[in-house]
């Protein structure tokens, strides 16, 4: 059937500078994915095969999707996403074809990165009552990965919060044989994430990002992004009583709009 999407390359707009912390992780990803894409000759010369699959694991909201998008953008790769639960539900009955189509599309548009979020949903360990459907989908995925040329032009990144619950067959050589843990950020990481999310955002002088990083123990990137968003909403709420909502807001009100320390405290 006619597919208007065919041949359309999707390029992400996320850049490395949009990621806070995770320097070491990003360095590893670049080495595994960017280097072979840009300089396959290095790998050919030494006879090593770049990875076809990389597994990102760690808690939700820590930047797994962000890193995948950033590396794709950096190498100008077509970025294609799939999610485990989506494969299981939306394409129910036709999941294998959906997978084949994605891989075909990625090869046509190479260099490409295929990102499979929550892979544990399609590829649970065999002993974890894997049904017939899951078995067929995993088999299809394995066959598709085995079929990739392995020159690093199509790389599959899979993400999971539960690295130990995915089918070990997926982690064998030539498949998802590299793993990178994307963990909960420490204080320095949180500070860098705050810096990313407040870049270009007007902050009052009393806002101390370092102090916020100090007191947000356990927050992941997604939590910090949300906190900044809510503080911004608080700042907006405070000016509502001062303006006539039916009229254009005076330029000086916009000009003076800032997020204050108190907006963060109540966020
Ligand atoms: P999930 O397992 O839920 O898919 P994830 O690890 O893929 O989570 P992302 O989708 O990358 O998480 O992050 C969600 C949002 O949180 C991002 O769009 C971004 O706004 C923010 N975020 C997460 N981690 C970071 C980070 N390290 N630096 C900056 N922003 C981050």
Topology:
Layout (H helix, E strand, L loop, with lengths): L22 H16 L1 H7 L6 E5 L6 H11 L3 E6 H6 L5 H14 L3 E6 L14 H16 L6 E7 L15 E6 L5 H12 L10 H7 L5 H19 L11 H6 L4 H5 L2
Parallel strand pairs: 1-4, 1-5, 2-3, 3-4
Adenosine-5'-triphosphate binds next to α3, α7 and α9.
Describe this structure in words.
It is built from 11 helices and 5 strands; from the N terminus they run ααβαβααβαββααααα. It has about 270 residues and is an alpha/beta fold. The chain has a 5-stranded parallel sheet, with helices on both faces. α6 (about 130-145) links the parallel β3 and β4. The longest helix has 19 residues, at about 220-240. The chain is elongated and about 65 Å long. Adenosine-5'-triphosphate binds near residues 61, 64 and 196.
Concise synopsis of the structure shown:
The protein is α/β, with parallel strands linked by helices. Helix content is 45%, strand content 11%.
Shape: elongated
Integer average pLDDT: 89
- What is the N-to-C order of secondary-structure elements (H for helix, E for strand)? HHEHEHHEHEEHHHHH
What percentage of residues falls in helices of 4 or more residues?
Answer: 40-55%
Total strands: 5
Bound molecules: adenosine-5'-triphosphate
Radius of gyration: 22 Å
What quaternary form is this? Answer: single chain
Total DSSP helices: 11
Largest sheet strand order: 2-3-4-1-5
Ranges where pLDDT stays below 50 over 5 or more residues in a row are none
Structural class: alpha/beta
- Beta-strand residue fraction: 5-15%
Largest sheet report? 5 strands, parallel
Family: Belongs to the AAA ATPase family. CDC48 subfamily.
Domain AAA+ ATPase: 50-186
Protein name: AAA family ATPase, CDC48 subfamily
């Amino acid at each position: 059937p006619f597919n208007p999407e065919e041949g359309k390359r999707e390029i992400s707009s996320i850049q490395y500078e949009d990621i806070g912390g995770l320097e070491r992780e990003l360095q590893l990803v670049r080495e595994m994915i960017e280097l072979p894409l840009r300089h396959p000759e290095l790998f050919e010369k030494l006879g090593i095969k770049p990875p076809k699959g990389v597994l990102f694991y760690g808690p939700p909201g820590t930047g797994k999707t962000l890193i995948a998008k950033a590396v794709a953008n950096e190498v100008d790769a077509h970025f294609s996403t799939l999610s485990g639960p989506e494969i299981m539900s939306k394409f129910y009955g036709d999941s294998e074809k959906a997978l084949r189509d994605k891989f075909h599309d990625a090869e046509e548009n190479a260099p490409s990165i295929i990102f499979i979020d929550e892979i544990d949903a399609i590829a649970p360990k065999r002993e974890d009552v894997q049904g017939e459907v899951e078995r067929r989908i995993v088999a299809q995925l394995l066959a598709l990965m085995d079929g990739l040329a392995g020159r690093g032009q199509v790389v599959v990144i899979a993400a999971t919060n539960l690295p130990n619950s995915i089918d070990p067959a997926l982690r064998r050589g030539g498949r998802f044989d590299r793993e990178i843990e994307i963990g909960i950020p420490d204080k320095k990481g949180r500070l860098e994430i705050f810096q990313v999310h407040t870049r270009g955002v007007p902050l009052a002088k009393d806002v101390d990002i370092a102090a916020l990083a100090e007191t947000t123990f356990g927050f992941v990137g997604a939590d910090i992004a949300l906190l900044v968003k809510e503080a911004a909403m608080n700042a907006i709420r405070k000016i509502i009583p001062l303006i006539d909502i039916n009229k254009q807001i005076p330029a000086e009100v916009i000009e003076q709009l800032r997020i204050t320390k108190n907006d963060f405290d109540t966020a």
